[in-house]
Sequence to fold (347 residues):
Amino acid sequence: MRVVVFERYGEPAEVREVPDPRPAPHGVVVRVEATGLCRSDWHGWMGHDPDIALPHVPGHELAGVVEEAGPAVTGWRVGDRVTVPFVCGCGSCPSCAAGDHQVCERQTQPGFTHWGSFAQFVALDHADVNLVAVPEDLSSATAASLGCRFATAFRAVVRQGRVAAGEWVAVHGCGGVGLSAVMIAAASGARVIAVDVSPRALDLARRFGAAECVDAGTVPDTAAAVRELTGGGAHLSLDALGSPATCAASVNGLRRRGRHVQVGLLPSADGTTAVPMARVVALELEILGSHGMAAHTYPAMLEAVRSGVLRPDLLVTSTITLDAVPEALAAMGTAPGAGVTVIEPWS
Ligand SMILES: [Zn+2]
Ligand SMILES: [Zn+2]
Fold:
């Protein structure tokens, strides 16, 4: 099969022929029809993820067709159209037993803990725990974006962020996950403020339901702008980019008892950043994380997609081939772009 592989962190990836993967007894091999390009892939390529061993094939947002199933798989058959959360659970640890597969103690992540979906085939473990059926009328390109960005945004806004109609929600960073969050918060009846340095990203945010936009390229203190627009601060704020500046701005833009959800990964290897904790204490703020979404919680999100309340298809702004990935991957660092780029490995 053809894959995108890199041998050293930060050095150009290349497209290469490698042997096809085989499924684990409890796993499947999926023929990849579409896979999203995400900033997390760039973090992995830069060496920010300790789970990655070289040489490595990235790619963690995928949809495709089951090509081969291991002998212990009972719920899926060759030919089924499927997607997976980017965090795959083991199905048997205490977190999985509690339904929290997104923080599984023995989790696997395609494109991080093993080779991912910038490939024509990908192996996925514990298929009965992690595969999600893709509804017939959902394209693979759209379904691919659900596994990481859209599902992560859904959980961050709805579950961790506990969004309520009428609340002010600030979204710092309007790439794929941020635009998803804008759409989901707006569909939940919240008034959304989008913050980004890119006028194009803000245009898309407005199209997806943002009531207000703050251009971080021209507004020096975005937190003050959010407090001003909301009459005291957002009820819920997300750092959907992952940088010291956006994290701090998100926390500083909250009103009393507001909730900050960290969604974007921080660029340093240990993921640390300065948080204005004095403000957290004085205003009784909540600091939350969001890490994907378990496969068994997909039905509510898929129903909102089926009914047209949520339109992840609108987030897909470009489609590329495997050959274009090395350059596009490198560009994610400096120009993450607006919207979602989908790779079709067989085109
Ligand atoms: Zn991702
Ligand atoms: Zn587990």
